Amino acid sequence: MKTTVYLVRHAQSDNSVKDEMTRPLTPAGLEGRFKAVDFLSDKGVTDVYASPYLRAVTTVKPLADKLGLEVMTEAGFRERASGNTAGIADFAYKQWHDRDLAAEGGESLNMVRARFTQALEKLAQELPGHTIAIGTHGMALSTVYNHYDESFDYEAFLKVKDVMPRVVRLDFEEGKFAGACEFQL
After folding, report:
1. Between 54-67 and 27-40, two packed helices, what is the crossing angle to 10 degrees?
2. Strand pairing of 176-183 and 47-50?
3. Which domains are seen in the chain, by residue range?
4. Selection from 44, 50, 37 nearest residue 2 by Cα
5. How do residues 130-164 score in pLDDT, each as one tens digit?
6. Among candidates 40, 79, 76, 77, which has minimal Cα distance to 60?
7. Alpha helical stretches, state H, the chain
8. Is the C-alpha dihedral spanning 2, 178, 78, 25 positive or negative?
9. What pTM did the predictor assign?
10. CB neighbour list of residue 129: distance below 8 Å, 6 or more residues apart
11. pLDDT class for 86, splitting at 50, 70, 90?
């Protein structure tokens, strides 16, 4: 049985708020999230999940409301803990080229991939035949996309790192990965 998962990168967030949990969307982000809602509203979404971070929940909440669903939060879908890093762009480059590299107090991309794919594959097995939307984050989404489709590499990441919201579809058959594609909103 096929399970379809739409990974939705949050809309534009207010980077002046440094707290990861409570960082809100900007006014443009509040408006921009409806691109994802419009795109997903006719896809047969049966379940809506999100990272517990406010910006991810706020991005998919209008979809859940429109479909009469609740947003369920799952910590496995949160963004990479960056730890104590200076020059975050340079550090992202280093992490893409050394997936085990982690800043003090942070996570490596392999750590992000492991926790995210564990939560994702558990959902795919528990909800066979469902279509699931998951509100998540740029680096987490990109790391997982690369896990399932190695052609999505650092150069591809650079092309979409500022695209918010962004949607990637992952298909699973009998709980096993079966295909991926990205959509331009």
Report:
1. 40
2. unpaired
3. 2-183 (3.40.50.1240)
4. 44
5. 999 999 999 999 999 999 999 999 999 999 999 99
6. 40
7. 27-40, 54-67, 88-97, 109-126, 138-148, 154-160
8. negative
9. 0.95
10. 1, 2, 3
11. low
